[in-house]
Amino acid sequence: MIVSLPMFGDYYTNNLLSGSPKTTMLGNLIDDAVGSTGQGNKAAAFVLILMVLVLIPMLYYMRSTSRSLVNR
Questions:
Q1: CA 38/CA 54 separation, integer angstroms
Q2: What is the CA radius of gyration of the chain?
Q3: What span, in angstroms and rounded, lies between the C-alpha atoms of 35 and 57?
Q4: Dihedral of alpha carbons 35, 41, 44, 50, sign
Q5: For 21-60, what is each residue's pLDDT tens digit?
Q6: What span, in angstroms and rounded, lies between the C-alpha atoms of 17 and 48?
Q7: Predicted TM-score of the model (pTM)
Q8: Residues 50, 30: contact at Cβ < 8 Å?
Q9: Is 52 exposed, middle or buried (0-12, 13-18, 19+ CB in 10 A)?
Q10: Most buried residue among 8, 11, 12, 23 by CB atoms closer than 10 A?
């Protein structure tokens, strides 16, 4: 999880190093949607998708580690 979190939120480095549209990350899409007029719904949808993509593996990890601690 620690390795994948910057992928979701670190969009500034991508813009700084490469302005190429081929390297767009989810953070870039959210940033573009928030910065555009009338795109609040699109930005909110992207944030919800991002939350689901981060929370599901995190909950799985927490559940599996708690089970292993109980089984000791």
A1: 26
A2: 16
A3: 29
A4: negative
A5: 666 666 777 777 777 788 778 878 877 887 888 888 888 9
A6: 27
A7: 0.55
A8: yes
A9: exposed
A10: 11
